[in-house]
Amino acid sequence: MQVLNRTAPPARTLAAALDAEWSDRWSDIRPDADWLLLAVRDDTIGEVAAALAPYVPQALATHTSGATPGTVLAPHFQRFGVFYPLQSFSREREPDWSTIPLCVDAAAPADLLFLQEMAGKLGMRAWPVNDEQRAALHVAAVFANNFVNHCYTIAEQLLAEKGLPFELLHPLMRETLAKALAYSPAQMQTGPARRGDQATLERHLALLAQHTDWQTVYAALSESIRNVVPSGVK
Question: For residues 37 and 5, what is the distance between their CA atoms, to the nearest angstrom?
């Protein structure tokens, strides 16, 4: 029903898309607001909550962070929780909301039920996830998304240095993901570290001599693979 933002243009743009009211002043929040969705940076959640609480102390306040506990809202609101969509969002792509897990948590059972119902209205599946579970989930998501994407970036730049297109790796990337989704990723692990092929590992490290940071990443990941899956297993 209402969009608040520190600066007017983003508030106006989003409000127009939602057919909602907007303001760039916290004090303009509707006094009858019963649910607040704080979609802000992690390090500003507490600050924004403190600014809004005096105007709507009775509201259910929720944030959308995976890494920050819901209790960050406790000093400001009696009713608080988390409404966290587990997905990476980019302006260039429209997400399929029906496939995105929505992790919910709340201090009161009635508020948790409300958040689960709201997830259903959005066509999403709600997963009750507490603060401790969500912290581990967020770390896992960094490995599965941010770190993997950075590895793609390294691969793309290595190929570009030799005049090769990144699309050469696309079939391999698709097959790797398909196997990880169908089976345990540890079971599907391949490569020189999995095989214990030290000669190949050393050649690869030599090829990365001009990129010492990538060398470090390669060595660390190879050692981690050897620790998770016994070397020599094909």
Answer: 12
Q: Are 79 and 63 in contact (CB under 8 A)?
A: no
- 123-167 residue pLDDT tens: 999 999 999 999 999 999 999 999 999 999 999 999 999 999 999
Rounded Cα distance between 209 and 216, Å, is: 10
DSSP string spanning 55-107? T-TTSEEEE--SSS-GGGGTTT-SEEEEEEE-S---TTS---GGGS-EEEEES
- 108 and 184 inside one domain: no
**Among residues 129, 163, 192, which one ends one of the domains?**
129
Are both 98 and 158 inside the same structural domain?
Answer: no
Domain-terminating residue out of 103, 129, 155: 129
The neighbour count for residue 229, using CB atoms within 10 Å, is 19
Chain CA centroid to CA 193, Å: 28
Expressed as residue numbers, the domain containing 196 is 135-228
Global pTM reads 0.88
Does 90 lie in the same domain as 43? yes
